[in-house]
Structures are given as C-alpha cells and as structure tokens.
Amino acid sequence: MFTPNKTYSPYVSPFDPCKPIKVKSYSTPPHLYIGFQPNNFPQFTPMEALRAGTLWKPLYDPYYNARELAKGGKPS
Predict the structure, then answer these.
(1) What is the pLDDT of residue 76?
(2) Closest CA to 44 of 59, 29, 26, 23
(3) For the range 60-63, what are the long-range contacts, defined as Cβ-Cβ under 8 Å and sequence gap of 24 or more?
(4) How far is CA 66 from CA 12, 41, 63, 69, 72, in A?
(5) CB–CB of 2/33 below 8 Å?
(6) How far apart, in whole angstroms, are the C-alpha atoms of residue 70 and residue 55?
(7) Where are the alpha helices (DSSP H) in 2-76?
(8) 9 in Cβ contact with 23 (< 8 Å)
(9) Separation CA 28–CA 50 (nearest Å)
(10) Entry pTM
C-alpha cells in the first residue's frame, strides 16, 4: 500500500555522545508508485494547479516539516 511517509530505526551506539534519535522518517514522492499515466487522470483546475505545483491530483504531495506534524498534522 502507498504511504508517503516511511520510518526506520537506525543503529544506536552505546558510545554515541549525543542523545540518540531512535526513529527516523522520510517521505517518498507519489510518482514512484504510478507506473504509467492512465486515461482520464484526475486534474486540478488551472488555478489550483498553480498553487499545488502539479496538474494531476494523484501527483500532489504537500510537504510538512517535523514541527507541523508534531503539532497535530497539516498546517492551516
């Protein structure tokens, strides 16, 4: 199943001088999961496409930094 945000647990050394980050996350773009462009791909209106940065709705991938996600999700 497609999930844009993935997490992993890096190795934590007992001799690391800094506080370890036990879970790290990264985001993957949606175009990695679309093999080809199907017919009748849903599109944004021209004004929405300018704001989103893409014409096709399935390829829209907003970026949220860690602080925005920690506050409870999507920014206003």
Answers:
(1) 47
(2) 59
(3) 60/30, 61/4, 61/27, 61/29, 61/30, 63/27
(4) 21, 31, 10, 5, 10
(5) yes
(6) 29
(7) 46-52, 66-70
(8) yes
(9) 22
(10) 0.58
* 45 CB-near residues (< 8 Å, 6+ apart): none
Phi/psi region, residue 67 (left: phi>0; alpha: psi -120 to 50; beta: rest), is alpha
In this predicted structure, what is the pLDDT of residue 42? 92
Write the CB contacts of 24 (distance below 8 Å, at least 6 apart in sequence).
7, 8, 9, 10
pLDDT at 73: 61
Tens place of pLDDT per residue across the chain (76 aa): 567 788 899 999 999 899 998 999 888 888 888 888 888 889 999 999 999 988 998 888 887 777 777 776 665 4
